[in-house]
């Protein structure tokens, strides 16, 4: 047996032993931190990667010719279910006609190991023709809503941070540069659960690993000259003491994303209650208000069950329009949530809901 193979097998044994001790005596947060370091060492020794795992300081790179809403104006957007490619762009026109308002944003989701993993050039070009800014949610997994917290080591944050997916990231960066127009990249959203806990996504619960992966992606995009891309950090900010541990830093964040979803009576068994807008929007915003970045409510919606959705919509938009840093509100036009099938998030879930939304956004503040 050659020395390299011996070292590799020995490292595996040591790694397994360390993992058991770490989880038993140090708890889950330190457990995931040490797992990431051990995984990196194994990959380097095995010869699968020889990249530098450190992240260099990056200058703030901006393109002065690209602007979004000036502060004080709010653009509307939507996630439209089924809009996976350019063949469905007519659904955007239908929705704009429904609400009597043009869209400035369209929210998209793309998974690293699923049918939609390739850069959506044709779809983004169609959106650009309509003067719509895409917000692309980039998810490092193969979608598995039946077992959403299972960590696939192939697409783990640690694998990203040591460079195992650099070529895939560079392909997206080059395609982004070729696209040329402004879009916002939202990597690994809602990551900031309590350290050590994966509640509904596999990239949750590991602050150090998340920051390293996020920064590596941004660095690669900048190296490839994708200056038309802006970057959104979208945590779940109900844990003030831990949320900011996930913040990648001012150099790496252009927009702050908020998730404001009222699950009401359709929520998890431990939390089935109607939530006022201030419990979610105000509570979350207070955690990150010290970060000097514009804000987009990137997922906005409510169930009909447990309260009055029309009043909730009206109340929320009244609260949000008082925030001078808010530049966008994006509704979820999804009639069945994959993790909560009973919830119809759409503003068109009822006559009263749609009426309340149209009235709320009829004022000049909304573009």
Structural features, described:
The protein is α/β, with parallel strands linked by helices and 367 residues long. It has two domains: 1-50; 63-360, Glycosidases (TIM Barrel), CATH 3.20.20. The chain has ten helices and eight strands. The chain has an eight-stranded parallel beta barrel, surrounded by five helices. Strand 7, helix 9 and strand 8 (326-333) form a beta-alpha-beta unit. Helix 5 (166-179) crosses helix 6 (207-223). It is globular. The protein starts with a helix and ends in a 7-residue tail after the last helix.
Features:
367 residues, alpha/beta, TIM Barrel, 2 domains, eight-stranded parallel beta barrel, globular
List strands and helices in order, with pairings.
Layout lengths: L2 H44 L28 E6 L9 H10 L5 E7 L9 H9 L3 E7 L17 H5 L4 H14 L3 E5 L19 H17 L5 E5 L6 H4 L11 E8 L14 H12 L6 E8 L6 H12 L5 E8 L17 H10 L7
Parallel strand pairs: 1-2, 1-8, 2-3, 3-4, 4-5, 5-6, 6-7, 7-8
Quick structural overview:
The protein contains ten helices and eight strands.
Helix share, percent: 25-40%
The value of Rg in angstroms is 21 Å
Number of helices, where a helix is a run of at least 4 consecutive DSSP H or I residues: 10
CATH topology of the largest domain: TIM Barrel
Question: What sequence of helices (H) and strands (E) makes up the elements?
Answer: HEHEHEHHEHEHEHEHEH
Morphology: globular
Strand proportion = 5-15%
Provide the CATH architecture of the largest domain.
Alpha-Beta Barrel
Instruction: State the separation between the terminal residues, measured CA to CA.
Output: 69 Å
Mean pLDDT: 81
Indicate the structural class.
Answer: alpha/beta
The CATH superfamily of the largest domain turns out to be Glycosidases
């Amino acid at each position: 047996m050659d020395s390299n193979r011996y070292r590799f097998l020995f490292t595996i044994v040591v790694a397994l032993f360390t993992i058991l001790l770490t989880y038993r005596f140090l708890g889950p947060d330190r457990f995931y931190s040490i797992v990431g370091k051990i995984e990196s060492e194994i990959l380097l020794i095995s010869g699968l990667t020889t990249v530098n795992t450190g992240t260099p300081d990056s200058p703030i790179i901006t393109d002065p010719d690209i602007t979004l809403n000036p502060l004080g104006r709010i653009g509307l957007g939507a996630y439209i279910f089924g809009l996976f490619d350019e063949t469905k762009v007519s659904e955007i026109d239908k929705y704009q006609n429904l609400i009597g308002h043009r869209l400035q944003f369209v929210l998209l989701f793309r998974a690293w190991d699923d049918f939609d993993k390739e850069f959506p050039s044709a779809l983004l070009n169609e959106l650009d023709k309509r003067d719509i800014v895409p917000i692309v949610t980039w998810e490092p997994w193969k979608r598995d809503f039946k077992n959403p917290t299972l960590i696939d080591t192939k697409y783990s944050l640690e694998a990203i941070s040591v460079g195992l997916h650099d070529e895939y990231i560079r392909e997206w960066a080059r395609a982004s540069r070729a696209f040329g127009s402004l879009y916002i990249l939202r990597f690994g959203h809602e990551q900031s659960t309590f350290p050590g806990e994966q509640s509904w996504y596999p990239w949750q619960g590991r602050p150090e690993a998340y920051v390293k992966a996020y920064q590596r992606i941004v660095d690669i995009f900048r190296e490839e000259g994708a200056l038309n891309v802006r970057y959104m950090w979208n945590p779940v900010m109900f844990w003030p003491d831990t949320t900011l541990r996930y913040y990648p830093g001012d150099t790496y964040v252009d927009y702050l994303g908020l998730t404001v979803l009222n699950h009401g009576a359709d929520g998890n068994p431990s939390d089935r209650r109607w939530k006022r807008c201030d419990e979610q929007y105000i509570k979350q915003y207070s955690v990150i208000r010290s970060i000097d970045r514009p804000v987009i409510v990137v997922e906005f919606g409510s169930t009909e069950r447990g309260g009055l959705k029309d009043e909730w919509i009206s109340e929320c938009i009244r609260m949000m329009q008082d925030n001078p840093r808010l530049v966008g509100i994006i509704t979820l036009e999804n009639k069945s949530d994959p993790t909560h099938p009973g919830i119809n998030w759409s503003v068109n879930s009822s006559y009263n809901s749609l009426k309340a939304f149209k009235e709320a956004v009829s004022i000049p503040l909304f573009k």
